[in-house]
Design brief:
binds flavin-adenine dinucleotide; 5 helices; alpha/beta; six-stranded antiparallel sheet; globular; single chain; Rossmann fold
Amino acid sequence: MEKYTATVRGVTPLNDQVKLFRLEFEKPFEFQAGQFVILNITDADGNPQRRSYSIASSPKNKDYIELCIKIVSNGRVSSIMGQLQEGANIELDGPYGKFTVDKEQKKELLLIAAGVGIAPIRSLVLDLCETGYSQAVSLFFGFRYMNDCLFKDECLKLKQEFPNFNFYPIISRPEEDSENWMDVGHVNAVLPKYVNNAEGKEVYICGSLPMVKDVVSALEEIGFNREQIRTDAWG
Ligand SMILES: Cc1cc2nc3c(=O)[nH]c(=O)nc-3n(C[C@H](O)[C@H](O)[C@H](O)COP(=O)(O)OP(=O)(O)OC[C@H]3O[C@@H](n4cnc5c(N)ncnc54)[C@H](O)[C@@H]3O)c2cc1C
């Protein structure tokens, strides 16, 4: 796979744990929504490390990608990423992965994410909206606290602009200042409220392995078969 050097051109904290990085390329970087790159980073002990990160931006932009990274305090690579400043160079290769939508199938899409699993799903949402996907696209996004509702304003704006796009944020630990229009609980428990049959639908799920398993079980109870479900679980 081709190797690239990218330059950090933007670091935006999305909450106290997650940062959005904009990496710019000198030569065009082509990818499909839902794919990931592998960063080659030297850790604090001077050892080379490779870690996968989903591309969170739209494939229409070929001169940069955005990565949405949870900074794990004892994480060998994410902690280094957490300290990166504008102008730093990063070696990466890619794109990799098959968590991509065949838009020709014209299926109704359920996109389901939890936590930082929103990264590849955001890329899919942006691409589907920007290319005028003709079928309904519903995003179910599970998170713990209000400030974990990453890209909320962007999703609400897309919902206004694209009548085919629906946004269902689901908060598991609401507090006094939480927005009370949001569903409360876990994604697998809330899904049946909105999805009562599997006909003509395809599902994309990204999150931790336990979350993905719970959502797959909920979907199977509704009547989905495994061929309709694509998963991207990160352990
Ligand atoms: C295809 C793919 C796409 C991915 N995309 C993304 C992405 O878009 N954004 C992103 O943030 N990560 C993503 N990951 C996870 C990423 O590759 C790393 O595993 C993660 O950043 C931790 O790496 P690290 O070197 O910082 O931690 P490590 O040094 O590998 O691990 C240190 C400790 O952190 C724990 N840990 C690892 N991940 C988490 C976590 N998420 N929450 C809490 N504890 C954790 C480990 O169990 C371990 O105890 C993706 C993984 C895959 C396979």
